[in-house]
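Lay summary. Proteins are chains of building blocks that fold into shapes, and those shapes determine what they do. In this project we predict the shape from the chain. Here is one chain we studied, written as its sequence of building blocks.
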Amino acid sequence: MTDDGIRLLAAAIALIPLLGVALALGKIFSDWISSVARNPGAGEVVQPVGLLGFALTEAIALFALIVAFIILFVG
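And here is the predicted shape, written in a compact code that computers can read:
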């Protein structure tokens, strides 16, 4: 394999956590919608927790993307 091939393979492997992020975001929002549908009065209580979970989960995706870009374009 050439250096470019290894670099592309490493970047693809670095993006594997995006699958987990996608599944986690789906779970976060499905639970959020279901909890508000069951108890509409708890919407103000559940919203900050849901947004925090979304932000922290999305941060993992951004870190994985940054690592992939570093692998591709640095070195």
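What the prediction tells us: Residues 33 and 43 are 9 Å apart (CA to CA).
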